[in-house]
Write a structure and sequence with these properties.
The chain is an alpha+beta fold. The protein has one domain. The chain is built from three helices and seven strands; from the N terminus they run αββββαββαβ.
Amino acid sequence: MEDRFKLVLQRETKVLPVYVLTAAAGGPTLHPAKDPGSKAPVEDRLEKVSGSLHLDKATMKEFCKALSRQMDRVVVNETEISGAFQFDLNFESGRDRSGVAIFSAVQKQLGLKLRPGNRPIETLTVKSAQRTK
């Protein structure tokens, strides 16, 4: 792509608004993955219409990545929880992507908490590109 489109990219770290994922006051209520030693891929079903997210054998990093696709900001994992888990999250889905319903669902169903914050995030910027003939 770099040769064909004369694409020039630049990686940089910027402090951006994010959602920070931590353990809630009562502690997490996560379900360990069924057969965590299996090499089967993580199943990621995000259903925006019905408002549900299902992940199997997912780490907290993978869960945050899936949540980020639903939210209007990146979700950063600060739980310090390791291992693979089965996530079944159900929330009210609406037209806006503010994620308000997800905040309470994450806390009630998983014992985790989402809060707004600012963190350094690596970004990729297109510095220049040319049209092909």
